[in-house]
Amino acid sequence: MKRILVLFAAVCMILCSCGKESVPAAQTEEKDGITEQTEQTEQPNTTEETKKPLKREEAGHQKTVVIDPGHGYGDVGCGGPESKIGYYEYFYTTDMAKALKSSLESRGYIVYLTHDGESFPSLSKIKSLADEWGVEYDETKDTWAENNIFSPYERVIYINCLDAMYGVDFSISIHVNANAESDTLSGFDLDYCKENEWSSESFEIVKKIRSMIYNEYPGRNLYLYADSWDDSFVVTKYNSMPSALFETGYSTCDADAALITDPVWRNTLMDNLAEAVAGALEE
Ligand SMILES: [Zn+2]
User: Fold this and answer.
1) pLDDT tens across 248-278, in order?
2) What distance in angstroms lies between residue 164's CA and the mean position of ligand 1's atoms?
3) Domain-wise residue ranges, the chain
4) Fewer Cβ in 10 A, N or C end of the chain?
5) Class for the domain spanning 63-281
6) What 8-state DSSP symbol labels residue 260?
């Protein structure tokens, strides 16, 4: 996607209001020498609780990641048949997301994709999930629309639904970049939101990814952004968990296009990314 090169210098104190509330632990009460477990009154009703797997704050929770393959359906992204990468961006993002999923699963992670390239959750599905699981959303956004576009805003609400259901430790959106002004601009871009409740945790994971890039791809550019505006980067903004967006290279640059179109390079990149994310989440 086309980027505006802006770095936020100001530290904003506004925290996102959609943060996760921790589920209160069951209280232990002593009655006549007998220890009983009692539920706190503010907990959700028990029928809803029984279908919830362990949330990420709870002991025994299995680390869970959501991967968002950027674009698809009515939004093809950059590239295309006439471009240096030969296909639209969504083809590569879906391929890489599936490789990243396999890599993380082989490391013991539970992984969900926002979509699989075959179909995506409809607006009514996302809305009903959000209503069922108490996930906030803003229906007045013009990107909240029943059409063939799985908009970044709809994706982030869907990711938050998956978090409400399964307890998601991290979400990452995978992309291929483009720059209309330069055919030599090359390298990776990493974005995270600097202004939500999860910014510091997101940055810790981003730093691990950055270290991996420095080690595995020496000499390759890395542009790091702390984005906070409503654009494609909204998939790192309204999240109820730490998140990042990874641009794997520029479709408009010959050198990057040669890498992006190489399935071995893509697979290795996703394996390296999985190793970095797993390293961060294990700490
Ligand atoms: Zn993109």
Assistant:
1) 999 999 999 999 999 999 999 999 999 999 9
2) 26
3) 63-281
4) C
5) alpha beta
6) H
